[in-house]
Each structure stands twice: as structure tokens, then as C-alpha cells.
Amino acid sequence: MSSGDNGPVLRIMGRVNHIILLIEKTSLIILMVGMLIFGFLQVFSRFILKAPIGWSEELLTYSFTWASFMGASMAIYTNSHFSVDLVTKHFSQKLLKTVRLVIWVLICLFAVFLLYMGTRLAIANHIQRMNILPISMFWAYLSMPISGAFILIHGVEKTTEVYLNIESEALEDLE
Q: Which of 173, 167, 145 is nearest to 65 (CA)?
């Protein structure tokens, strides 16, 4: 069964996922370059100038948090999370499909939990400020619901692909 047989909903879902993937890639590039620059500046100022930059460590910590959540979401889309197929490689196709559906549904449920709890945490901490930077903790906690939403969208597409026996073209599109 090809994706063309399943109509415009899957095409729209695929486009939305590609847009989200572009957002994830772009933010990860920005975050990683920023972390590299500020990490270098922190080491340089601490060991060469003997005057550490106070705010760089905090910025690096929250940038790493954002990068971790965005990377986890992107790994869902590209099927890059580790998996152990020692048992499942011996399953029948029908049982394997059922197991894969259950796994993707659980991933979607976790994404809903992440979205819900992340939103609650972000809102609850919007008044709190970071220790050194004059920025609300809302922005640090916002990585949870955003990545939860991205994981949910990716997960819904993957669940649909498994249910309809459609091979994903996600890996081809990354190259």
C-alpha cells in the first residue's frame, strides 16, 4: 500500500512533520553552535583571563536541556532511538505489527503527558527567574511541552504508518 492511496490527510501529516523536522534541525544547529561558543568563552575566561563569565554556565545548562528535548523529538521522527530486536525479530508479521502499534501508542501517550505536565510546569514557574540571567524559568520549562507536541505529531504519523502498513520515507528525506 502506498501513501498515495491514503489521501490528502497523510500528505498533510507528512508536510507538517517535515516542517517540524526543519524547526528541530535549525534549533539544534543554533543551540549546538551557541553551546560551543559559550562553552569556549567560559573556559577561556575562566582559565586564561581568570575571570569566569557568570551567566554562561546557566545559559549552557538550559541550552543543553532544549537540545536534549529537541534531539529526542527528532530521533522519534528518524527512528534513531535504540531498540532491542532480540525477541521481536522472531515474531510473526501480525504480532510484530501489533507490538509496534502498542509501542507507538505508548510513545504518543508519553508525549501527551510531556505536553500536559510541561505546560503546567512552564506556567507554574513563569514568575521564577533564573539565578543569574534575568529570564523567566518559563522559557527553560517550555522545552518540555514543545518537544512533547513535536513527539506527539511524529508519533501520530508513525502510528498511522504502522497501522496502514506504509513504509516511512522520513530517512530518504533527511539526505
A: 145
